[in-house]
Amino acid sequence: MGMESSQHAVVLLSGGLDSATTLAIARDAGYVCHALCFDYGQRHKHELDAAKRVAAALGAVEHRVTTIDLRAFGGSALTADIDVPKDRSDVTDSHDHDDADIPITYVPARNTIFLSFALALAEVLEADAIFIGVNAVDYSGYPDCRPAYIEAFQNMANLATRRGVHGNALTIHTPLIDLTKAQIIGRGIDLGVDYGLTRSCYDPAVDDRGVARPCGHCDSCLLRAQGFRQAGVADPAVSAE
Amino acid sequence: MGMESSQHAVVLLSGGLDSATTLAIARDAGYVCHALCFDYGQRHKHELDAAKRVAAALGAVEHRVTTIDLRAFGGSALTADIDVPKDRSDVTDSHDHDDADIPITYVPARNTIFLSFALALAEVLEADAIFIGVNAVDYSGYPDCRPAYIEAFQNMANLATRRGVHGNALTIHTPLIDLTKAQIIGRGIDLGVDYGLTRSCYDPAVDDRGVARPCGHCDSCLLRAQGFRQAGVADPAVSAE
C-alpha cells in the first residue's frame, strides 16, 4: 500500500455484517484499528456483544464503547417505543426509495453523531483515518449514507481539529459505499470474516439460554438474508442455530 | 424581521455569558427557542444549574440536558484529572494565539459533537436554525470556533438530514463570532440579560451554603473580568458576593 506501518484508524463497529467487513478491510489495508462502538439506548443490545467478539476476532487493538443518550431526542423505532416494522414487501427494492421514504428505524443525525465521536477519538489517538461501513446501494433511504454527505463531513472535520489546522488531513474511508450486500459478503469471506459472530436483527428474541436469535422478519434480517442468498452462501449466524 | 412567527431554533446553552447572550439574540430575532445543554463529565457542573436559570429567565420554551460521555476520550483539563491552569499572563492576549497554542482546556471535537446533537434535535423538532455562541475574536485557539468551520458544518448538516434532503436548509447562526467580550456584554445588557445568573469559571469553589464561587484566576474568569472591565460595567456575578 505504500503506507507507513504505524498508521492508526478509528473503525465504527456495530456488530452487524457491514461494519465487521469494514474492520477487515481496514486491517487488510495495514491500519492499526481502534474499534468504536455506541450504546445509544438501542433495543438490540446484543449488537454490543457481537461487536466485542468481532473486534477481538479481527485483531482490533482496542474496543471502546461510548454511551450516548439519543432517547431524549425520540423519533426512531430503534430507541423509542414504536414497533419495528416486519415483513415489509418493498424493503429489498433498494433502488426504488425516494427521499420521502425514510424508514422509521432512522435515528436522527445518527451517523453525524457517531462520526463526531470518532473524530474526537481520532484526534486523541492522532489517527489518520476513520472507517465507516455506510452503503449507498442498499442505503434504505438514509440521507447520511451518501458520498456527498461523507465528503462534506470530512471537509468539516479537517477544519474542526488541531490535526486539520496543521494541514495533516484526516481521511474518512467508506469501503462499502458502492457495494451490494452480496458483494460485501463476498469481500468479507475473502478476508476471513466469520459472519457467524455478527448480528443484524433490529428485534431479536432472547432464548432460554440467553442467546439472541434474529427475528427473520425486520428490514435488517430481510436485507441480510437476501445478501447471503445472492452471494450464494449460507448465513452462519442462521445456519448455526 | 419578516420571519414567520412559528420558526423554531435550537440554542446551545452552557450557563456562561456567551451562550446566554446568544439565547437573548435568538429570542429577540423572533425564534421559539429550545435550549440544549450537555452534561459531559465537566468539572464545572454549576454551569448546568446556571444554564437552567438562564433558559427560564430568557424565555426558552424548554431546556433539555443530554448526558454525553467524553471521559473515555480524555485529553482535556475540563474532563480529565489535569489541573486547570491559573493566572496565565497571556490569556487575554487573544490576537496573539497561533495554532500551536491550543489550551489544555480544549475538549476534542467538542463543538462538532455538540452541534451534532443540536442537529438531531433540530431534525426532530423541525427547527429552522441552530444558535451557537462561538467567538473568533476571543477564540483562545480553538479550531472549531472559526467561521470556515461553522460554514462547513452547516453544509454537512444540510446533506445529513431529511430536512436538508428536501431542500429546506437549516441555518447555523453565530451572532457573537465577530464581537469582543465587551461588545457581547454590551449587546446582552441592551437585551436585558441578567449576567448575575451566568457562570463562567472552569474551577469554582463551593462555599458552605452550596453556592459555587468563581476562582477568579482561570482563563475563563480572566477573560470575563477583562470583558466587564472593557464594557465599563460591574460583573453582577462577582459584585453580588
Give keywords.
5-stranded parallel β-sheet, 8 helices, Rossmann fold, homodimer, alpha/beta, globular
Question: Can you offer a commentary on this structure?
Answer:
Two copies of one chain form a homodimer. By secondary structure, chain A is α/β, with parallel strands linked by helices. The first copy, chain A, is built from eight helices and seven strands. The first copy, chain A, has one domain: HUPs (Rossmann fold), CATH 3.40.50. In chain A, the strands form two sheets. Chain A has a five-stranded parallel β-sheet, sandwiched between helices. Chain A has a two-stranded antiparallel sheet with strand order 6-7. In chain A, α2 links the parallel β2 and β3. In chain A, α1 crosses α6. The longest helix of chain A has 16 residues. The first copy, chain A, is globular. The relative contact order of chain A is 0.18. About 8% of the residues of chain A have low confidence. At the A-B interface, β3, α3, α4 and α5 of A face β3, α3, α4 and α5 of B.
Structural class of chain A: alpha/beta
The appropriate CATH architecture of chain A is 3-Layer(aba) Sandwich
**Which bin fits the share of residues in helices of chain A?**
25-40%
The CATH homologous superfamily of chain A corresponds to HUPs
DSSP summary, beta strand count of chain A: 7
Number of helices of chain A: 8
Q: Most extensive chain contact?
A: A-B, 45 and 45 residues
Q: N-to-C terminal Cα separation of chain A, in Å?
A: 40 Å
The CATH C-level name of chain A is: Alpha Beta
CATH fold-level assignment of chain A: Rossmann fold
